[in-house]
Specification:
- The radius of gyration is 15 Å and the shape is globular.
- Helices cover 48% and strands 15% of the residues.
- A five-stranded parallel sheet has the order 2-3-1-4-5, sandwiched between helices.
- It contains six helices and five strands.
- The protein is an alpha/beta fold.
- The chain has helices at 17-30, 42-50, 59-76, 86-97, 103-113, 139-152, and strands at residues 5-10, 36-39, 79-83, 114-120, 158-160.
- Helix 6 links the parallel strand 4 and strand 5.
C-alpha cells in the first residue's frame, strides 16, 4: 500500500486552519477520492487535556506527536488532511521561547510528508478559543516566521484566503 498524499494546512492562530481542514476532508470523502483521514492539531488536544499551554521543554514531544499522527494516517489512507504540522510547533517555539532548535527537524518532517502546503491568510477575524489564543497581535509575527522558515527550507506553498 502506498502512503497517502498529505495536504498540510499551516498558518497563524485563528486563520481558519481547522475549519478548512475539516471541510477539505469532507469534500474529498464526498468526491469518493478514496480513504481520507483528517489529522487534528495535537497542541489543541494537549492544551485541553493539561489545561494550559506547553512549556519550552514540552515542545519537542508535541512536534513529534503531530508528525507521528500524520505518518500513521498516511500509512493507511489515500489522502491525509493535516490541521497543522510540525512547522507550527517550531514557529511558536521560536516566537514564544526564542528557541530555534526545532526548526530544522520540523522542516525535514514537513517536507518528507506534505505533498501540498496551504498557508492560511490573515484575512479572517481573530476569535478567542480558550487556552491557545494569544491574541491578534501575534498573527503577523507568526506568519512572517512561518514564511521565512518555509522559504529557507524551500517548502513551496499556496496561500488560501476568504471564506467558503
Amino acid at each position: 500500500m502506498s502512503e497517502g498524499r498529505c495536504i498540510a494546512i499551516v498558518g497563524a492562530e485563528s486563520t481558519g486552519k481547522t475549519t478548512l481542514a475539516a471541510a477539505l476532508a469532507e469534500r474529498l470523502r464526498a468526491a469518493d477520492a478514496g480513504r481520507v483521514a483528517w489529522v487534528p492539531e495535537v497542541l489543541r488536544e494537549w492544551c485541553d487535556a493539561i489545561g494550559r499551554t506547553p512549556l519550552a521543554h514540552e515542545q519537542g514531544a508535541i512536534l513529534r506527536a503531530q508528525h507521528e499522527r500524520i505518518a500513521e494516517a498516511a500509512a493507511t489512507h489515500d489522502w491525509v488532511v493535516c490541521d497543522t504540522t510540525a512547522l507550527m510547533t517550531a514557529v511558536y517555539s521560536t516566537l514564544v521561547f526564542g528557541d530555534e532548535s526545532l526548526q530544522q527537524r520540523a522542516a525535514e518532517l514537513h517536507a518528507r510528508t506534505a505533498a501540498v502546503t496551504l498557508l492560511t491568510a490573515l484575512d479572517l477575524p481573530w476569535v478567542a478559543d480558550g487556552h491557545q489564543r494569544d491574541g491578534p497581535q501575534v498573527r503577523e509575527p507568526v506568519d512572517a516566521l512561518l514564511r521565512a522558515l518555509m522559504q529557507r527550507h524551500r517548502i513551496g506553498y499556496s496561500v488560501v484566503a476568504g471564506r467558503g
